Amino acid sequence: MMAEVMYDSLHGEMVKLADEKEDYTAHDAGSMCGKNMSKETSSTIGEQRQFNYALKPMSKEEFVTMMTADLPEAPSYFPKDAEINRSGARELSELQPPQPLTPKQVVELRDNSHILLDVRSAADFGAGHVPGSMNIGLGGQFAIWAGSLIPLTASIVVIADTGAQVDETVVRLARVGIENVKGYLEGGVESWRAAGLPVEALTQISVAELNERIANDEMQIVDVRRPGEYVNGHVPRALNAPLASLDKSLGPLNLRKDKVTAVICAGGYRSSAAASLLEQQGFSNLLNVSGGTGAWVNAGYPVDKL
To answer: Could you report the per-residue pLDDT of 85-103, keeping only the tens digit for each?
Structure first.
């Protein structure tokens, strides 16, 4: 049986790999637990020896340099979750179930520093949402971004369309150590509207519309992808402000809050989250680019690289 060695950075030693052994991945593409992860859910060592860039012959020093270059900043919840893993997490049955809340109660909690977490899609959030709410949709990498953007000790009110979405939110938040969901807006955004309370909208634009409007020098374009994604290709004139560190990234950009500001990511998920945060900071003319940079590239529009 053929075998090859590689450097195991976790245990600091060289290990042998067998061709026939089946491997089942622990984290999928997009996870911050690794670098350049494949979308495949299983593989063989033979396949990995043949195609995996990290298994090419190289020294220990070359391997470490390659694997640690351009790594994103570890999300703030990682150290806390490691601590929870060591001590043991609470059973889900021990969590206090979220309580149904009226629009008036939600207003009071929002005014008392509770985070209003809207877990609907970017399109639904854009069509109408509670002012001051944060959008992290259940349809994307919800747990990663919730853990990155929401303090572990924050008190949360969930805004969703269904009770099933509320239940799913509670479970997925708990997986990253966020266990303080106080309640949910009963009846969702429709009950908010019915109570006569104001609703905000976030305009969604296609990449074709962005291409038509990009000649307008007054438009600001903010790309909230990770730096490694940004340098590999971005919309011309787009400025990079990664979502994970949005507050820190915005300062040097000197953006005007009253200007038209298009927010873009890879597909429209992170940009909706970023736009909801920018809205909280007083940006008054925001656009979320549906389809993101992926759609821009596929449409054949020009791309800048750094």
So the answer is: 555 656 666 677 899 999 9
Tell me the C-alpha distance between 261 and 218, whole Å. 9
Q: What is the pTM of this model?
A: 0.77
Q: Do residue 248 and residue 284 come from a single domain? A: yes
Give the integer Cα–Cα distance in Å for 218 and 204: 18
Does residue 81 contact residue 89 with C-beta atoms inside 8 Å?
A: no
Comparing 25-29, 225-229, 272-276, which segment has the lowest mean pLDDT?
A: 25-29
Interatomic CA distance for residues 59 and 6, integer angstroms: 9
For the chain, the domain total comes to 3
DSSP notation for 162-192: SHHHHHHHHHHHHTTT---EEEEETTHHHHH
- The helix/strand/coil state of 255 is coil
Q: Do 225 and 164 share a structural domain?
A: no
Whether 133 and 236 share a structural domain: no
pLDDT digits (tens, 9 = 90+) for 14-39: 444 444 444 444 444 445 555 566 66
DSSP 200: B
**For 222-240, what is the mean pLDDT?**
95
Which domain, by its residues, includes 219? 203-298
Residue that has been written with the tokens 């001590």 in this structure: 87
Are 37 and 120 found together in one domain?
Answer: no
Distances (CA, A) of 273 to 133, 218, 269: 10, 23, 7
- Residue 85's domain is classified under what CATH number? 3.40.250.10
pLDDT digits (tens, 9 = 90+) for 130-147: 999 999 999 999 999 999
Q: pLDDT averaged over the chain?
A: 85
